[in-house]
Design goal:
Helix content: over 70%
Number of helices: 15
Structural class: mainly alpha
Low-confidence stretches: 321-329
Shape: globular
Number of strands: 0
Radius of gyration: 21 Å
Largest sheet: none
Number of domains: 1
Length: about 325
């Protein structure tokens, strides 16, 4: 039957995605367990405490964010699920760490994509890390001053502590991975449903004028929208293709990759962080607004630089034909 065939296809796709995630997550889970058993988590938390206090988070969240930055969002989620329950975090705090993860995660992979597009690593890494901290600080300040989202957060990914010993802990991790598989499956089905209903296409049309208002050229708008909606791997791949063909100016490539670094996969990743317990006001609306302001400011500041300064500090301009190296703005 067509329905059963389609359903089985989605299950297989979710299983394939989950298997890739589990290959990363299992070592992370074991490492966190070892750190906990040795009592080292509290020392790591103490090291991160000064930085995390700027965004209103307990020091343990530094380990969560660092894991997401080095591995991916799912790695950060696993660590979060392992150490967050006893901390009794508010919805505001979960939203802050969720937004920080959204802005800066999977840095080894995603900065490689940026480098292949021509953006200098010495700009991209500090740009995303500092942007994540700034967004976290602004959200923490707004939530605290306004008294918003101060109730205890509901964590869907919460893992059992497995207090009965190692077998119970192992069983709880298997249950957590089963939950991850189900959420991945729901996300895949939802994304395909959004495509079928034309909502993804509607978002593409709505984002076009937003990119133009930021100062990103029309030639880069389409691939940037792909990256914002589908993810930086998709958008970055298209950018790399167009860079090699010479279709885009260096500055448009730079602004496009910078934008995708702050906001990409805005449907899938937003749903993922909401399942973690983050509030839509932060993980979607505040993040998109923050991205608009930052990229608009970046366009204005970098637009004042000479081509020589731009190429020296921000972009490797010498890796394609000279006639495509700059754009007149």
């Amino acid at each position: 039957m067509p329905i059963l065939s389609t359903a089985w296809k989605q299950v297989r796709e979710a299983a394939g995605v989950s298997f890739v995630l589990f290959r990363i997550m299992v070592p992370v889970v074991i490492a966190v367990k070892v750190l906990g058993e040795l009592g080292l988590v509290r020392y790591i938390a103490a090291a991160f405490q000064p930085l995390m206090s700027l965004v209103g988070l307990p020091g343990e969240m530094g380990l969560v964010w660092a894991t997401a930055v080095i591995t991916n969002m799912y790695g950060g989620i696993v660590v979060f699920a392992s150490i967050a329950p006893p901390l009794h975090m508010t919805t505001a705090q979960i939203t802050v760490i969720a937004c920080m993860i959204l802005v800066a995660h999977s840095m080894p992979v995603e900065t490689t994509i940026a480098r292949k597009s021509g953006v200098r690593i010495r700009f991209m890494i500090p740009f995303r890390l500092l942007s994540a901290l700034l967004l976290g600080f602004l959200l923490h300040t707004a939530f605290s001053l306004g008294g918003f989202l101060q109730g205890r957060g509901r964590i869907m990914w919460e893992a059992s502590s497995g207090g009965g010993g190692l077998p119970d802990w192992a069983l709880s991790q298997l249950q957590n991975m089963a939950t991850i598989f189900l959420i991945v499956l729901v996300l895949i089905i939802l994304m395909k449903l959004l495509d079928r209903l034309g909502i993804t296409d509607l978002m593409n049309r709505m984002l076009g004028p937003v990119l133009t208002s930021m100062g990103i050229g029309r030639s880069a708008a389409t691939v940037t929208i792909f990256g914002m909606v589908l993810g930086i791997s998709y958008g970055g791949g298209l950018i790399i293709r167009d860079v090699r063909s010479g279709k885009l100016s260096d500055r448009d490539v730079f602004f496009s990759i910078s934008l995708m670094g702050l906001s990409h996969a805005i449907v899938e990743d937003t749903l993922l962080m909401m399942s973690l317990g983050g509030h839509i006001s932060g993980v979607l609306f505040a993040r998109v607004l923050f991205t608009w302001v930052v990229i608009w400011t970046l366009v204005k500041l970098v637009g004042r630089l000479s081509d020589e300064s731009f190429c020296r500090f921000f972009f490797r301009c010498g890796h394609r034909p000279a006639r495509h190296r700059s754009a007149v703005r």
